[in-house]
Amino acid sequence: MKTIEELGDVAGLRVLVRSDLNVPIDGETIGDDGRIRASLPTLVQLAKAGAKVIVTAHLGRPKGTPDPKFTLAPVAKRLGELLQPEGITVHFAADVTGDSAQEAVQELDEGEVLLLENVRYDPREESKDEAQRGALAEELAALADVFVSDGFGVVHRKQASVYDVARQLPHAAGGLVLAEVDVLKKLTESPQRPYVVVLGGAKVSDKLAVIDNLLAKADKLLIGGGMVFTFLKAQGHEVGKSLLEDDQLDTVKGYLETAKAKGVEIVLPTDIVVAPEFKADSPATVVAADAIPADQLGLDIGPDSAKAFAAEIAGAKTVFWNGPMGVFEMEAFAGGTKAVAQALTEVDGLSVVGGGDSAAAVRQLGFADDAFGHISTGGGASLEYLEGKELPGLAVLEED
């Protein structure tokens, strides 16, 4: 993939940047600005080089029509606050490629940044019809001279602002995309050992291909979160009212057998924090993982399991973690996730937090980003890469 430096002198050029600014937002309040901060180095690099920087991004799922709940205006404000110390001014266009965007591009000075309105306001962005996506890409390309792909969280999507526009302009990968790919190569091509993978989250079905692929690469898989109850059930244990995917039991049994044959250890919790209801104030108790009462549901791994998981992580040289160990948003069920996060900060090697809920969890629990080797901005993209899938947004960057 071509780098920004290989584009040559960008001074005076209009550079369209696809960033990932899809942050949690309530009204005008941004809950976690991690993705905005991650986009800054590439924007600063281009602006300092004298480019006219035009940013396209999405927020949420507005379903192809303007919706005030999903406006990028609050993101533009935050972006301006973060770039102000660099002396970089941020402007905002009220549409995607319409009159507001075109006028703002014409008025944009060298070294300034313009954020276009939510690209998913345009139904062509996510269209399955190549001609429709191509038409939007043409409009985006008309605003710029070159394209930089820096939204790693969307590179697994074949969308107009990610894939099609790269086929219409000279293009390069931004620093964030290059950094993410470099980390993923370390996880898949030549990981330092022992290599421990920690998987959590709600459903086994969300991680099937990842488990399948990593069974051939990792030394140990630690399983927590809601998905663990399908593993426990596959071993013949009662899981009470816990989240369970009955249709995945045979698949999970197959994974347990495959892991044993390959010499890969799948580590499951030995104790579980349970409660009668999915509520923050529901009375929590700790039970053995093989003795969950029928009227209880598991909401976190237990304290003994948290210590055991932390010990496994401490002995690793490479750790990839995707998915919380429990309902970390509720204090009574955050202990397992906090223990895993703390253990990752102490790894003598590469520790990777795989984006999505895991990234949100470490920040909500008070951990600094730089406490980890890498926090991914793209949970879905990271998982698909680890599954061995081709990511369209990366593949197109490798085209001449």
TrEMBL record:
Q: Which residues bind ATP?
A: 207, 298, 329, 355-358
A GO term from the CC aspect? cytosol
Spell out the reaction equation it catalyses.
Answer: (2R)-3-phosphoglycerate + ATP = (2R)-3-phospho-glyceroyl phosphate + ADP
For this protein, the record's InterPro entries field holds:
Phosphoglycerate_kinase, Phosphoglycerate_kinase_CS, Phosphoglycerate_kinase_N, Phosphoglycerate_kinase_sf
Annotated residues for binding of substrate: 20-22, 35, 58-61, 120, 157
| Family matches, as Pfam families | PGK (PF00162)
* Positions bound to (2R)-3-phosphoglycerate: 35, 120, 157
Where is it mainly found?
Answer: cytoplasm
Cite the EC number. Answer: 2.7.2.3
> Subcellular location, in the record's words?
Cytoplasm
**Self-association and partners:** Monomer.
The family assignment reads: Belongs to the phosphoglycerate kinase family.
Name this protein carries in UniProt:
Phosphoglycerate kinase
